[in-house]
Amino acid sequence: MMRKNDSSGTTNKRFGVIRFTIYTFAVLLNGIVAICTLLGKAACFVNPLDHILPSYLGLAFPYLVIANLLFLLFWIIKRKYYVALPILTLLICYPETRRTFSIGHDVHAEGDTLSVMSYNVQMFEFFAPRKKNHILQLIEEVQPDILCIQEFGHSNLSDHLGEKDIQQSLYRLYPHHKFMGNDLSWNAEIGEAILSKHPIVRHGVINLEENTGTKIKGVLYADILFKGDTIRIINCHLESNRITENEKKTLQKIKAVSKEDANQVVNSVSNKMSVSYKNRAKQANIIHQQLIKECPLPIILCGDFNDVPVSYAYQTIRGDKLLDAFEESATGYGYTYNKQLFHFRIDQIMHSKEAKAIQFHVGDKDYSDHYPISCKIVF
Q1: pTM (2 decimals)?
Q2: Are 146 and 196 in contact (CB under 8 A)?
């Protein structure tokens, strides 16, 4: 009998050691996840020109939230007081979680309403050969009151989508329109466009290239007349990470390539992202200072931020004057960039606090590398 007791005691001690090791490892891992999540939150307030790490963790924020939820479930099942760690982390990061995973609000509101769409059209399917263009068809079907397009472009080649094709399709729907473009070396012009069913009484471009040294030329804005009031429409396209298609493909199959090739691609992508984060910070500061901060008019801002909601660029542009239409009236994650491994919400519609957003929608047609986003703004 003594031998059985000794054997049972030894087994219990062994299981005790294993259990202690598992819990210790889980607590340490949970602690690391919590710290990374809090640093991700800090991406909203820490300028990447000063410290770059929070920006990378802000990009990973959705996955960090999910990891915290998994730890929360684990500690609840195990009935351990360590459950306080993910709970505290999620409470501290609730505002950022709320703007990343929206649960939606009222879908109805009374007042004067503008339907708004923002769409990075990727040069209308990369200047597809002249035919009935899918993106133009989609816009003709939706016909929002205000349409903000990024990468609005046309080819100068006779057998590709040209300026006349776009004019025939869009300008008859939108008699009021403004365009800001850059000539490209490959027989094309590309830029930003604001198209409106309501009169444009003033418009302009805020130069970004001269002030930041970036490759994005500027930000287009137009003041429209709506129901006797003037509303400022801002269309911005912030610096992209400029990751090539080959780099994206390599990242998708990173385990299948050599260690040398993998390191080379990772280093290249990391360097590009670091530069882009810093450029977007400069651009966001200019947009906020020159177009938003002192603007006396109600504002509707659309754009391809090339950055997630938990980022310095997003927080700087939004500031304390604008609200996020997605956060107000969408449900779910709502990613707008549709390439594999890069499912992030980087396209935004924002508006002044005197208005309300309803019926936010993310399209599902992958005619471009971005999905269109739309909503109704009620004043």
Answers
A1: 0.89
A2: yes
Contact indicator for 124, 98 with CB cutoff of 8 Å: no
Alpha-carbon span 31 to 75, nearest angstrom? 13
Ordered per-residue pLDDT tens for the chain, 379 residues: 445 556 666 666 777 778 888 889 999 999 999 999 999 999 999 999 999 999 999 999 999 999 999 999 999 998 889 999 999 999 999 999 999 998 867 667 788 899 999 999 988 876 666 677 889 999 999 999 999 999 988 777 777 777 788 888 898 899 999 998 765 556 667 889 999 999 999 999 998 876 565 666 689 999 999 999 999 999 999 998 877 767 676 666 665 566 676 677 778 888 889 999 999 999 999 999 999 999 999 999 999 999 999 999 999 999 999 999 999 999 899 999 988 777 899 999 999 999 999 999 999 998 999 999 999 999 9
CA distances from 20 to 33, 86, 208 (A): 20, 20, 56
The string of DSSP letters for 84-100 reads HHHHHHHHHTHHHHHHH
Alpha-carbon span 119 to 330, nearest angstrom = 17
Q: How far apart are CA 162 and CA 303, in angstroms?
A: 24
Contact 225, 199 (CB under 8 A): yes
Residue 327 half-sphere exposure toward CB, CA atoms < 13 A? 18
**Beta pairing, strands 200-207 & 218-226:** antiparallel
User: 144: number of CA atoms within 13 Å, CB side?
Assistant: 24
Which residues touch 20 (CB under 8 Å, ≥6 apart)? none
Report d(CA 234, CA 24) in Å as an integer: 51
C-alpha–C-alpha distance, residues 316 and 46, integer Å: 10
Comparing CA positions, the residue from 376, 304, 377 lying closest to residue 118 is 304
Helix spans in the chain (H)? 2-41, 53-59, 61-78, 84-92, 94-100, 122-127, 134-142, 163-166, 209-212, 245-252, 259-287, 312-318, 325-329
Sheet holding 146-155, edge to edge: 176-184, 188-196, 146-155, 113-120, 373-378, 356-362
